[in-house]
Write a structure and sequence with these properties.
This is Suppressor of fused-like domain-containing protein. InterPro entries: SUFU-like_domain, SUFU_N. It holds the Pfam family SUFU. The chain is built from 3 helices and 6 strands. With 174 residues, it is of the alpha+beta class. The chain has one domain. Strands 1, 2, 3, 4, 5 and 6 form a 6-stranded mixed β-sheet that branches. Strand 5 and strand 6 form a beta hairpin. The longest helix is centred in the middle third of the chain and has 16 residues. It starts with 8 loop residues before the first strand and ends in a 22-residue tail after the last helix.
Length: 174
């Protein structure tokens, strides 16, 4: 969805990820059908964007994430992280972001979090880009620690390739 006067951001969505049920491994209350989104500033160049353009990486990330559950035979859901390789490498020149965490969007109304269609319950999550150190924080200390740190630093799901890394100290404070 391109930016508009009443919504000055671009919103990218997967379309079709929810067509197949994910293998949740019997986890109770884990959604079997999800779609993912990324929110980009209205200044993000989307017109005639090709795969070689440096600003194309969010589209590539969403496409890769949409295939991930089928490729791994598992599920993606709230709090999961996916790194861009092992070890994680930046998505593009000009950013050190190299992974994502799947979480509810802070930029859409809560009514948008789920949809029932054709006897399927679909949940919508944001793919929030992370730095390598933030991926490590999630692995070492858990999802709650990382999400708390992101919220404390007012990081939401608006993609900012140069945002501050929440694991780095600034003037002795986190």
């Amino acid at each position: 969805m391109p930016a508009a006067i009443d919504r000055p951001v671009h919103m990218l969505f997967t379309a079709g990820m929810s067509d197949r049920a994910m293998n949740t491994g019997g986890r109770r209350n884990a959604p079997q059908h999800i779609e993912l989104m990324m929110t980009l500033p209205e200044t993000w160049k989307l017109d005639s964007l090709g795969a070689a353009d440096p600003e194309y990486w969010p589209i590539r990330v969403l496409a890769q994430l949409a295939r991930e559950p089928l490729r791994r035979g598992t599920a993606l859901g709230w709090g999961d992280t996916v790194a861009n390789g092992e070890p994680p490498i930046p998505y593009a020149k000009g950013t050190a972001l190299c992974g994502v965490i799947i979480a509810p969007s802070l930029l859409v109304p809560k009514d948008f979090y789920q949809l029932d269609v054709d006897r399927r319950h679909i949940e919508f999550y944001a793919a929030i880009p992370l730095y390598r150190e933030e991926l490590k924080l999630r692995a070492d200390e858990g999802m709650e620690t990382l999400l708390t740190r992101l919220l404390e630093h007012r990081v939401n799901d608006l993609v900012d390739p140069r945002r501050r890394n929440v694991t780095k100290k600034l003037f002795g404070l986190f």
